[in-house]
Amino acid sequence: MKRSKTLRILSVVGLLIIGLIVLLPFFWMISVSLKPATEPFAIPARLWPESPTLANYASAFRPEFRTYFLNSMIVSGASVVITVSLALFAAYSFTRGQLFALSFMLGAVVLAQMFPHAAIIIPIYKMMRSWDLLNSYTSLILSYVSITLPVAIWMLRGFLVKLPVSLEEAAAVDGASPMRVFRDIVVPLARPGIISVAVYVLIITWQEFLFALSFTSTNDMRTLPVGLNDFIGQYGIRYGELMASSVMVSMPVVAVFFFLQRYFVAGLTAGAVKG
Amino acid sequence: MATVELSGLTKTYGNYTALKGLNLSIADGEFIVLLGPSGCGKSTTMRLVAGLEEITSGEILIGGERVNERPARDRNLAMVFQNYALYPHMTVGENIGYPLKIAGIRKDERQKAVDAAAAKVEMGHLLSRRPSELSGGQRQRVALARAIVRTPRLFLMDEPLSNLDAKLRTVMRAELKHLQKELATTTIYVTHDQVEAMTLADRIVILNDAVIQQVGTPAEIYARPANTFVASFIGSPPMNLISGTLADGILTHAAGQLPMAGAGEVKLGVRPEDIYLCEGDDPVHFEGQVYSAELLGDCVLLNIKTDEGLLSARVPPTVQLTMGDTVKLRFDTNSLHLYDATTGNRRDS
Questions:
Q1: Which of B5, B23, B2 is nearest to B60 (CA)?
Q2: Which of A70, A101, B132, B208 sits 20 to 30 Å CA-CA off A52?
Q3: Which domain holds residue A141?
Q4: pLDDT tens, B208-235?
Q5: Would you call A164 and B87 a contact, using CB atoms and an 8 Å cutoff?
Q6: B73 in contact with A at a CB cutoff of 8 Å?
Q7: Given B73, B81, B89, which is nearest A177 (Cβ)?
Q8: In what residue span(s) does the ABC transmembrane type-1 domain sit (chain A) (predicted)?
């Protein structure tokens, strides 16, 4: 009894320390974003600014930022919609299909996910160039769909294998065509899975930097992660504005995650157990 | 409403044969129960009729029309699943109305049909609930209502009562029987429960090892089991089967003998209720020690230890016997069943 109590206290302390380490950078980001330009490097360093100011936010929220934000929304939004739709159909086929070849293909999907982005970016770049798609939303959406689809398929499959087949059979006997069964029965029941996959794709694509930097060349096509780079100049880094932008960039994903984390965690475990 | 004709119906999964050349004619409006132990092919038969499995060989005619290649959705059947298969994201009303929605029936007409079907199973007051908010019996009723909301050619029921508790099962059994007679829709019902089969069926089809063992009315099957499998499957407790040798008009078995015509190795079948305790100069057909005596209220179920193994006998409740008592028994010689020891088939025609 006593031992378990000490153990519990120790584990709580341990979790607090880990939590602190994880959260400190975010706290520092917010703190710096509220400091006037002269303060970030003050010695001794202050955890919290002496006189917090929103000036950094005002200057960070420039027209370019709004363009970047819009670009990110378009690219991430389209990636989410396309990946989730494709993954739904694919995962359903992998779950219910009885072809022997499907199990090989499911393995191939995993294989596709194993290559580091740095290794596939050059071929993809060449493909985009030959299709004349560089510096377009399409190039980013295509590459984002291709890098998120494998995990999305596996996550959704984890959900779909848990749906009882008899529901689909019941609908078929009730007169529903296969597409109708999919629409009326499978999709509504897979909603938690769909939400968690959507959150996953959003998180990945919203923060993606490598492809966005390589495939876009003009300011009107850049996305937020690349846009943050603007504050890192040749002769110095404008930390205040950089951090203020970072906070603004993080907000949407944090908000989405906050409201939907229940589904996201369920999705990860479902995929893990069944995978 | 339709007749069903199954001819040479066979289903194999790889090397495994789930159903071997099944032939069966079902009359219009008939209540047919497929009965057998698990793995006997009864559920496979139903799934083939429903169109949920592909037929390996053979033919299915529904209403005189060959439906082998028709997908389940075009067969116009209604099925009640063992786990009810209610759509969890729809309300009770939406569940019942789903077949009509697919058929493209207008909303107001649909509502009328849903109300009527729900009223028939006394679920009218729960239409806006979700399946998760219902008890097992209520879910069962919703599944039934979904089946009767349209007029299908055939009802298929796959062990629909097996998830209910014993008391509710009895009630639902009666309701089901009543409903089927009222609607006069041909019904194929799968179960492993012989009581359900006996009480519900117009005719019972007993399956074992992918083959039909016997087809007949409950009374026929009980009175004249076609082989030792049926004999030991129907009846509770099951029929006693005693190995013996017939010669010179006498059947000799390990624990006694009795006069009987014929010759060869046989198995003698005696139902527990056809065994009596000997009184006065009654001929003794059997002797053994009481192994257990169970008072069931209206009778005492005796298990008697003999050289043939345990025999069960149903005797009047007034009989007072305790463990170890020696008892002499006689059989009702008019109700004996004789089976060939090697083939297991009934000897008298």
A1: B5
A2: A70
A3: 61-274
A4: 999 999 999 999 999 999 999 999 999 8
A5: no
A6: yes
A7: B73
A8: 69-260
